[in-house]
Amino acid sequence: MPSSVVNQYSYFPETEILRIAYQSGAVDDDLKVPLAFSERFRQARSKGRLLTAVIKRRYRFIKNN
Known about the structure:
The chain is α+β, with helices and mostly antiparallel strands and 65 residues long. The protein has one domain. It contains 2 helices and 4 strands, in the order E-E-E-H-H-E. It has a 4-stranded antiparallel sheet with strand order 1-2-3-4, with helices on one face. A hairpin with a 4-residue loop joins strand 2 (17-22) and strand 3 (27-30). It is globular and about 25 Å long. The termini are far apart.
């Protein structure tokens, strides 16, 4: 099922960056995200809920727009 918050995402294991493109067009790079957590994000039924509850509270991010 498509996310109402997340349009697409990419994970870069060499830098541990989880790049999230939102439905709004905004793009964030979440820093120092472990590979295991990126897998959890990939498998999440509600990516928006996981993003709000865990990722934005645990990892620093940079806005890319």
